[in-house]
Amino acid sequence: MVILLVIKTKSRIIWANQIGTLTTTIGQRIGLRQKEAEARLLKYGANEIQVGKKISPFRIFAEQFKSLLVIILIMAAIVSYVIGIFPGQEPRVVDSLLILLIVLANGIFGFLQNYKAEKSIEALRRLVAPRAKVIRDGLVQEIASRNLVKGDIVLIEEGDEVPADVRLIESKNLAVDESSLTGESESVEKEAKILKEDIPLVERRNLLFMTTVVSRGKGRAVVVETGMNTEVGKIAEEIRESKERPTSFQLELNTLGKKITYAVIGIIALILPVQFLIGAADFATIFLTAIALAVASIP
């Protein structure tokens, strides 16, 4: 009788669980049945880093000019130039160019930040091993790593990229290069033993993480997380969310833009009637004065 490999524990503290709570003894030798693996793949999805909908560089650049503050600056530049159509006025070409240069520089900086984030997710996806050695139906097979599922038994040896987050069942003189995750250049010793529950992530020696590389030894492990649920998947998700979610600085800029808009309207409403009553200046001068005050108030 074939005994299925099962994930029986509901605990997320997989580094502190007994191996018996993750897989059966026979399951460690025969692995998943192919039909069970296919069913889990349909249920939980492919073992891959999702990059989401690809955004063109042009759209990323255009999005840098959507904030209210930037729109106000662009309007100020346009007004500074077209004011020259009024009698006795000259276009403020230098002022207009300076404002537009500031807006453009800000747009380029924001574009580079967001484009870099987009490329970072793609880079993480390319780090995932294309193939993995697993035991299914009692046979050692090499499959596409995207077809790995929780509960698969994987075999790893020197030079292999870890295809998913796995918990060690057996290990022999095993060391892993985790620089793709931690930035540390030295390899980390790994061994199949139970650890304390409160141990930090970097010290979980019985876990191997997707995109890391086996630098020495060999081992056998059970897959515990795949795709976006792996540690590298969580990093990709954080990068994506930071790219899509406005930062506190951006929110403050939008708030500042609204305040400046109200200030410009208030200044014009205050100065216009006063200046007209005393006859100290014409409309164009009054309007330019308000614009100048608004632009000068921007940090």
UniProtKB/TrEMBL annotation:
Q: What Gene Ontology terms for biological process does this UniProt record contain? A: inorganic cation transmembrane transport
GO MF:
ATP binding; ATP hydrolysis activity; ATPase-coupled monoatomic cation transmembrane transporter activity; metal ion binding; metal ion transmembrane transporter activity; P-type ion transporter activity
* One of the record's GO cellular component terms: plasma membrane
Question: Its membrane topology, per UniProt?
Answer: Multi-pass membrane protein
TM regions (residue ranges): 68-87, 93-112, 262-295
> Which keywords belong to this entry?
ATP-binding, Cell membrane, Membrane, Metal-binding, Nucleotide-binding, Translocase, Transmembrane, Transmembrane helix
Would the keyword Cytoplasm turn up in this protein's UniProt record? no
Q: Which Pfam families match?
A: Cation_ATPase_N (PF00690), E1-E2_ATPase (PF00122)
Q: Where in the cell is it found?
A: Cell membrane
Residues covered by the Cation-transporting P-type ATPase N-terminal domain? 14-85
- By its UniProt entry, which InterPro entries does this protein fall under? ATPase_P-typ_cation-transptr_N (IPR004014), ATPase_P-typ_TM_dom_sf (IPR023298), ATPase_P-typ_transduc_dom_A_sf (IPR008250), ATPase_P-type_domA (IPR059000), P_typ_ATPase (IPR001757)
Q: Which SUPFAM superfamilies match?
A: Calcium ATPase, transduction domain A, Calcium ATPase, transmembrane domain M
Classification via SMART domains: Cation_ATPase_N
Q: Would I find Endoplasmic reticulum among this entry's keywords?
A: no
Output the NCBIfam families linked to this UniProt entry. Answer: ATPase_P-type (TIGR01494)
Identification of the protein by name: Cation-transporting P-type ATPase N-terminal domain-containing protein
This chain's source organism reads marine sediment metagenome
